[in-house]
Design a protein that fits this description.
homodimer, mainly alpha, 6 helices, 10% strand, DNA-binding, HTH_HxlR (chains A, B)
Chain lengths: 116, 116
DNA sequence: GATGCCAGTTACCTAAAGGATACCAAAATG
DNA sequence: CATTTTGGTATCCTTTAGGTAACTGGCATC
């Protein structure tokens, strides 16, 4: 197949779609935390520095709605709640990896131009 | 060299650094537009749907401060102003490409699960 | 029976992002 | 000479994101 070339309008539209889903300080950090084995509410909260319960609760709901995270209630005693990432969430990995790389490099760059 | 494995705390930190620089509805669309040959203020505005002059002006200043865009005034008659992306801005390309890909796929997915 | 952990909810508030509208001077165009 | 284009500013306003703090009910522990 020929590699499709997107128009600039399409590129902008798709980037904005992506931004709409992942933007904000917390959604990606939360997904990273869950993906790393933090499945309980308090575990996630501990893994994501400085997030409050209120914000975490709200963001988890958003992520559920966008089918990136699944909430499961186990009928144990006491009930436990588990959050897991969906396969769809994992499709974000290449993008997130690039974001991590860029952020790491960016921080190194800032040190160089603004030393001491 | 051994491939360095980042801790979850580091991953979260770097992602948040990146988000801090690119977040908002407009910064990436503006960079895409400039990179595609829209160098004049009004050209950029036309290329980025629905952005207002006020917001574009402010975002361009932010991008200049972050060394992602350069503003050049040509002493012609009348004076012309040209915006160009820096080499540093181009280092965002792999990430932006992944975001475009994901957004395209995401839109296709939404069509499937919510047809007509 | 007081304290603490879990998984949140509720109400309130502030700061920032973004939008709407109007306006400006200088030059070009019709 | 009226209009349009360029590269923006200035005001004002609304919306959203995010933070603070208190509280809940159920269970477990000391």
């Amino acid at each position: 197949m020929a590699k499709k070339e997107l128009s600039i309008e399409q590129k902008i539209k798709y980037v904005q779609d992506t931004l709409f889903v992942i933007s904000g300080k917390w959604k990606l950090p939360i997904m990273i935390a869950i993906n790393n084995g933090n499945n309980r509410f308090r575990d996630i909260q501990r893994a994501v520095p400085n997030i409050t319960t209120r914000v975490l609760s709200k963001e988890l709901k958003d992520l559920e709605e966008n089918r990136l995270v699944v909430r499961t209630v186990y009928d144990s005693l006491p009930v436990t709640v588990s959050y897991t990432v969906t396969p769809y969430c994992k499709s974000l990995k290449p993008m997130v990896d690039e974001m991590i790389k860029w952020g790491e490099n960016h921080r190194a760059m800032l040190k160089k131009i603004k030393p001491a």
